[in-house]
Input
Amino acid sequence: MSSQFTRSIKHFSSLHACVEHIRSNYDPNKTVRTTDTDINSGESDEIKAPAYLYRGESCPYPTTPSFMHRMKTTPKLPADVKDVIEEVTRRVDKDLQDMLKLEPMLSEGFLQHYGMPTRLLDVTDDLDIAAYFASGGKIGERGLICVFPLDVVSRNSIVIDLRNHPGAIRPRRQSALAFWNRKYVDVKSTDCIEQLQLKWFSFELQDEDALKYHEGNDNLLDAHTDPVAGMIQFLLDNMPKMDDRAAKWLSGEVVPAPFLAKGLDWHGPGQPNTTEPIPLSETSIKYNEEKERDNNYKRWSDNYPETDGYRLVKKLGEILRSLFPSEEVLGRLEPNWPGGKSIDFLIPSHKMAFVYRDSDTLDSLVSEAEQWCSANEYRLIKIDSPGAVTESSLRSRLKEILSKRP
Output
């Protein structure tokens, strides 16, 4: 934090004094009329919105850029690892839009909120929530709170409201929004502060502040029962394995939210007709965040053995590419992938789609693959695996299928 910045802001002897000053001068209950523009259609409506947004920081960081900017500029990660992390984020963002029918920047806002690097910045319309985040530092050290005047900010920036999605529990609990400005990377820069009329305040954290604003409020961070966090976990779990260093970094940042499929009704023994995703903690399995982060790291890293299902899908691709010119075979999650999310490989020249299906594959995913193939006039070929499948048996099965193609 530059000395110029430090001298330009008002300092308080406690967080409580800082919060009360803000409450008196930047009323959290005040609203303004502002314009809300639909990201997809471009249509605008006038709405009533909070007059001020807030951001709390528990340390006097010298700059406050986006998470993506911090990731891309840190010397701790090699350039090739940064590229992997950015590409994984881009793919998950696109998949989340498709699966939850989200507008592009709304999906990005959720990725930011649950720990993936984006160009956005977390803010809230609840001053007490900002104070919670500001109170997470060490007693006797400085923290910061910033006030964003919405009527000014909305003219120059994009503000994404994360408070209304029914499956996003933690953003609602934190009354969360996300902020992005195309021009300014750092909201502590002099130009940004002047242009957006931001108000930064500093304070010295006291024991009473930690007791009042922080202790007993850790549920604000809980997300392992959050369906949107679970969807992000699902999408990452279904990615091809990635560089070990990227997997290590992401597993330390992304909120682990493992969900299981609960059968609601059945069309046969062990064959659910309808399933519902439920958090791991609602089963007999005890949720342990540290353990789940380690599980994610091993699940995503190319340093760890692949599951039988993943190995079979990989082998399926290798065999298809040996039977067809490699440029004709498209794999799921490759750039510009045109297929459905549950399809593993496409051969567009022959209008053929392949999906590996084991006993854990949800019927809804197979149904999604069937719908996509029907709409695009593709033949869907399901590779079932009730047990171990050898390369020779898989190759024989494929040759048999391909010999019967029209």
Notes: Confidence is low (pLDDT under 50) at residues 268-272. Residues 1 and 281 are 41 Å apart (CA to CA). DSSP finds 16 helices and 15 strands in the chain.
